[in-house]
Amino acid sequence: MNETTEYLIRGCRNGKHSSQQLLYRKYARKLYVTCLRIVGSTVEAEEATQDSFLKIFNRLDQYNDSLNFEAWIHRIAVHTAIDYVRRQEPEWVDLSLNLMIPGEEGPDEDEIEYSVNQIKEAMTKLPSGYRVILSLYLFEGYDMEEISSILNIKPATVRSQYMRAKRKLIEIISKN
Fold first, then answer.
1. Are 112 and 170 in contact (CB under 8 A)?
2. Are 125 and 172 in contact, with CB atoms under 8 Å apart?
3. 137: which DSSP letter?
4. Average of pLDDT values for 156-170?
5. Whether residue 11 has pLDDT greater than 70
6. Average pLDDT of 62-77?
7. DSSP states of 73-113 as a string?
8. Alpha-carbon separation of residue 116 from 22, 89, 120, 121, 175 (angstroms)
9. Is the pLDDT of residue 129 over 80?
10. Model's pTM, two decimal places?
């Protein structure tokens, strides 16, 4: 951790509003992007970001200085954004372990020209359950077991939802 961040954390712990503002300015954009990928709505992403910072400021006494601060606040933002998605009550389809996902004829991944804007746009069109799993796996780097634990659903459900989400994302991109 750099000296500036350490100084800001000390200031926040001492109740300095200027330190809170500077810490917010330093990390707000990164946390907003994370929240946006998970919730899919700019308004809810802004609210989730604000709630994340409230939690961060209230829990700074729990932060262990030996941990990576950015990872610590990032984790708070991810869990806050997931809470927003849970309020939307996404539908999870539970599949038995021995049920195979049917192969559908669709566009070949190699034939689709991907761009960042296409993917961002397509992500907003996905159902919230698909969007959460894709965001956590592809962008946040969680593995299937961690996602299962975070969302409190079976690992087989996570895997099947991931495959369906990926297929749906490719379908949306290919139509555009």
1. yes
2. yes
3. I
4. 91
5. yes
6. 90
7. HHHHHHHHHHHHHHHT-PPPPP--TTPPPPP-----GGGS-
8. 30, 28, 6, 9, 16
9. yes
10. 0.68
